[in-house]
Give the backbone structure.
Amino acid sequence: MTDADHDPYADVAAALCEEFAGVHPPATVTRCVEAAHYGALEVTGCAHRGLVERIARKHLEVLALVASEPG
């Protein structure tokens, strides 16, 4: 594996998968991390690990809230 192949947010996704286990499947967590990465780049021009993690966590919290609402 080369540096280009390394996912710099793999540890973020792993931590969030653990945090949201039983709430969201791993694929959803991965998509939120990817969306957070691209969103951070679009808005700020950079995607620091901490920023990506905070954005992805908020996405996952909102998805969980919406899924828990009745009807």
About this structure: The chain has three helices and no strands. The chain has a mean pLDDT of 92. The two ends are 46 Å apart (CA to CA).
